[in-house]
Amino acid sequence: xxxxxxxxxxxxxxxxxxxxxxxxxxxxxxxxxxxxxxxxxxxxxxxxxxxxxxxxxxxxxxxxxxxxxxxxxxxxxxxxxxxxxxxxxxxxxxxxxxxxxxxxxxxxxxxxxxxxxxxxxx
Length: 122
Fold this sequence. Notes:
3-stranded mixed beta sheet, alpha+beta, 2 domains, GMP Synthetase, Chain A, domain 3
């Protein structure tokens, strides 16, 4: 968890690469038990191109990120980083919007039907 927090801060404040989207977050981090490898799942609130550009920017800054991570966290080894684009948050936002739209459509159709039914009941 500490690796995730520090990685987020390094990406947010330390890297000045214009390819890295300002709305980038570290969703989760998997570090191997021997601390040699770290998979960082990155979410970018933007289009697919912004996501790809962000991952490219992070890959080019890997050396800097590893040095910063080593400086901030006292680990036996500084893990080799692998940045993976995670679209699950964006997918969830899209699905939520679709569900809201369907609910709104059903609700607007349902109101008309309900008004008619109420008149018949009375």
